[in-house]
Write a structure and sequence with these properties.
By secondary structure, this protein is an alpha+beta fold. It has a domain of 55 residues. Helix content is 51%, strand content 7%. It contains 18 helices and seven strands. The strands form two sheets. Strands 4-6-7-3-5 form a five-stranded antiparallel sheet. Strand 6 and strand 7 form a beta hairpin. It is globular. The chain binds calcium ion (CA). Calcium ion binds next to loops.
Length: 396
């Protein structure tokens, strides 16, 4: 929290003191237009007025949407954070708790229940982190600031209000990411509108409060994305030393072709089965290697990033009882789990580095402190929350 406030102050300091009167009236008239557009789409004037009672743009949304990720996260940090032991344990407990629902969703949509649970775990930590931006405010801000995606944001805003108008969920529950994804599995409103299902039978599609609705809708999303029942999504493999052959998710070939190229399963079981697969080498030929199938592409379509699809696929495997990757990442400074990130911040504080409150979020202030600590310890300055600085500060 402290970090967020600090950066907000910094942002305000850098950008002057609030919007000019002209900008404010421009925003008001843009919001008025949005209200009219919503009403034309079938949203009641009362709801449009209540939802869009927003005199000023959301500064937080303006700030976050402009931030360029200046820090390139290595794949092992990304995976270390998203598929740590805590998320695996929590996921297994959640799967037990919602066993009936997950099996029902698997039955009805033909999508493996471990994958459904993994999406839930990666998107919101099983419903714990669903976002704190009021969607009408965030989406009005993004629409009215102008820019190339104005029409996209407007559609999301109107779709969100229509969900409320239809009675799927109350206006007060429209809280999510700055970019409009919300609910336990983070659908954007137009996706919600077209793919959400009522899976608990109360005739409302409530992806915020109803776990069955959220899990059923995720299964439906994957099913409609082309999920192939009973087929694998990803298999960890090993490539021959010095492999320079074809790779890439979209560069698919038959399993027998991969066998001819010298690719073997990492667990030693012979490669078999039909279907086309691509060879994913997320850290090059010396790191973990994976054959990825059509179902991996379906997972990929949820968020259009291979690292993301890899996280979901691996978490699904871990939830199903499979072990961590057999091939280590090609680094001597691996990533940290969420618990270790938090511990690293506590160690920084204990060593006199003022990073505010330890909250487990590695932002610019923590990274600056890490770089400072590295310098003081005579280590190369990376500013990265990795194993080396963690150990150097006494973490175990
Ligand atoms: Ca429902």
């Amino acid at each position: 929290m402290r970090l967020a406030i600090l950066s907000a102050i910094l942002w305000i300091a850098l950008s002057g003191v609030g919007p000019s009167p002209a900008a404010a009236s421009e925003f008001s008239s843009c919001v008025a237009n949005l209200k009219n557009a919503a009403v034309r789409s079938g949203v009641s004037p009362a709801l449009a007025n209540k939802a869009l009672d927003v005199p000023e743009p959301s500064e937080r949304v303006l700030r976050v949407s402009k931030v360029q990720p200046e820090f390139k996260t290595p794949i092992w940090d990304y995976l270390g954070f998203l598929v740590d032991e805590q998320r695996v344990e929590d996921g297994r407990a959640k799967m037990q708790e919602h066993d009936q629902v997950l099996r029902a969703a698997e039955q009805r949509f033909g999508v493996d229940r471990h994958v459904i649970a993994a999406v839930w775990g990666v998107e919101t930590d099983y419903g714990r982190k669903i976002g704190r931006n009021f969607l009408p405010h965030a989406l009005a801000t993004l629409t009215c600031r102008g820019g190339r995606r104005e029409e996209f944001w407007r559609r999301q805003l109107i779709a969100a209000l229509k969900l409320v108008e239809r009675g799927d969920l109350p206006l007060d529950d429209l809280y999510g990411s700055w970019a409009g994804a919300f609910g336990q599995t983070q659908f954007i409103p137009t996706t919600y509108e077209s793919l959400a299902v009522d899976f608990d039978g109360d005739r409302r599609r409530d992806l915020v409060n109803s776990v069955p609705d959220a899990l059923g809708s995720t299964a439906n999303y994957l099913k409609r994305g082309g999920w192939r029942t009973g087929e694998p999504w990803m298999i960890e493999v090993k490539v021959p030393p010095g492999y320079r052959g074809p790779s890439g998710r979209e560069n698919k070939a038959a399993i027998s072709t991969w066998t001819q190229r010298g690719v073997v399963r990492a667990d030693g079981v012979p490669l078999s089965g039909g279907g086309q697969a691509g060879l994913l080498l997320p850290a090059g030929p010396k790191g973990p290697a994976f054959l990825v199938f059509k179902n991996f592409d379906v997972i990929y379509s949820y968020n259009r990033a291979e690292s993301y699809a890899l996280a979901i696929s691996h978490l699904a495997d871990r939830l199903a009882g499979y072990p961590p990757f057999r091939t280590p990442w090609p680094t001597d400074d691996p990533g940290l789990s969420r618990a270790e990130r938090l511990q690293l911040q506590k160690l920084l504080l204990a060593n006199g580095y003022d990073i505010g409150e330890a909250d487990g979020q590695i932002g610019p202030i923590t990274r600056a402190a890490i770089a400072e600590a590295e310098k003081n310890l005579g280590m190369p300055q990376t500013g990265r929350a990795g194993r080396k600085i963690y150990s150097a500060l006494g973490g175990s």
